[in-house]
Amino acid sequence: QLQVLESGGGLVQPGGSLRLSCVVSGHDGPPVPVGWFRQAPGKEREGISCLNSDDQATTYLDSVTSRFTVSRDHTKNTVYLQMSNLTPEDTGVYYCTARPPLFRRCPGTPGPSLASHFRSWGRGAQVTVSS
Fold first, then answer.
1. In terms of Cα–Cα distance, which of 64, 66, 45 is closest to 124?
2. How many other C-beta atoms can be found within 10 angstroms of the C-beta atom of residue 101?
3. What pLDDT score was predicted for residue 128?
């Protein structure tokens, strides 16, 4: 059964950087598309970005463009979300999620149904940006 597990959350000062890791397990075969979402207090969950099986990235959230980068280490079955120049508005619970193995690509556009394209979800990692 496909599973994902996030790690790397924590407290960081504004302007700082943080890297989240997502280990994908329970799947033998080509890499699956992996996405990152976040949910701020009192707000809806929103898609951040996604990495195709061929490691091409799709960004869903304009506010993180040029600040957040997704990458994959195939030897460790791990996808990373590198976050820089963090602001208090980036505070929230960050989730890693994977599409079913029959898919090779990420959903093309964001929207209210974006999360429904993903099957396996992690428990989330708290990221707090505060001075």
1. 45
2. 17
3. 98
Q: What pLDDT is recorded for position 110?
A: 83
Q: pLDDT tens, 52-87?
A: 999 999 999 999 999 999 999 999 999 999 999 999
What's the CA angle centered on 49, arms 117 and 113, to 5 degrees? 30
Q: Are 21 and 70 in contact (CB under 8 A)?
A: no
In which residue are the tokens 């590198």 written? 82
Backbone φ and ψ of 68, nearest 5°: -110, 140
pLDDT at 108 over 90: no
Q: What is the 3-state secondary structure (H, E, C) of 5-62?
A: EEECCEEECCCCCEEEEEEEECCCCCCCCEEEEEECCCCCCEEEEEECCCCCEEECCH
**For 92, phi and psi rounded to 5 degrees?**
165, -175
